[in-house]
Amino acid sequence: MAGELSGGLYLVATPIGTARDITLRALDILRDADLLAAEDTRQARKLMEIHGVPMAGRQVLPYHDHNGAQQRPRILAALAEGQAVAYVSDAGTPLIADPGYRLTEAAISEGFPVTSAPGASALLAALSVAGMPTDRFLFAGFPPPKGGARLAFLEGWAAVPATLVFYESPKRLGASLAAMADAFGPARRVAVCRELTKRFEEVRRGSLEEMASLYEDTPPKGEIVVVVAPPELVAASGEDLDTALLSALKGASVRDAAAEVSEALGVPRKRAYARALELLREADA
């Protein structure tokens, strides 16, 4: 066995941008592990080369969503022999929106030691700079790519009393922010964090309506994390909502009245729209 690393699976966090954002312990594990597994083998080799970690004749096994079922038996066999196996994701902390979950689950099921070597994480980096409450947060991963499924997905989180964190692709950012404005209310605060720890790092903050408009026709480049503030603790009462809707319906369509009241009271547009329809049915009864 290389070095003094005991047998088991080691989940090693790697930089999300700046190569120097790696821990000394992570470098020790990469140096001493008997077997290396990586979501992107080229990225892993490049990182080790930058930091002068020798390969010493070892393999770097590719392990990702498309080959996990085939590679797990090979890695589990190495663990059964008492080898130290280091797994690194493409960037950041393994298992956070990453295929390493199944590997970890299998190793635990077989009774092998599993150890975390914590470090960089886009999720935690975004929470640090977003300016949102961090005493309670929920990571919801990537929203579905299609409109209907995405809106239904987001509506499930609308009332959660916590800061919400999402990953999103640049090309879908504008559509996702618009869907969030519909699901959470247009006035809810959001921070769009781009290229964290990299040269062109940027954080833009504002309301969901403002950010949806900003990115509607101009998709950004790079890795994106979206951080949405919790719902306001003091929500509009049912009486306030009804009063505002009845007033708005006097001079506008149901859709326009719902949009107006949603923005004014900070309630989800779907809730305002549904209640407006109920009020019209009650008036006709």
TrEMBL record:
CDD domains: RsmI (cd11648). It catalyses: cytidine(1402) in 16S rRNA + S-adenosyl-L-methionine = 2'-O-methylcytidine(1402) in 16S rRNA + S-adenosyl-L-homocysteine + H(+). Keywords: Cytoplasm, Methyltransferase, rRNA processing, S-adenosyl-L-methionine, Transferase. GO terms for molecular function: rRNA (cytosine-2'-O-)-methyltransferase activity. Its main location: cytoplasm. Residues 9-211 form the Tetrapyrrole methylase domain. It is found in: Cytoplasm. Gene3D superfamilies: Cobalt-precorrin-4 Transmethylase, Domain 1, Methyltransferase, Cobalt-precorrin-4 Transmethylase, Domain 2. GO terms for cellular component: cytoplasm. Pfam families: RsmI_C, TP_methylase. InterPro entries: 4pyrrol_Mease, 4pyrrol_Methylase_sf, 4pyrrole_Mease_sub1, 4pyrrole_Mease_sub2, rRNA_ssu_MeTfrase_I, RsmI_HTH. Residues 236-279 form the RsmI HTH domain. Its EC number is 2.1.1.198. Belongs to the methyltransferase superfamily. RsmI family. Catalyzes the 2'-O-methylation of the ribose of cytidine 1402 (C1402) in 16S rRNA. This is Ribosomal RNA small subunit methyltransferase I.
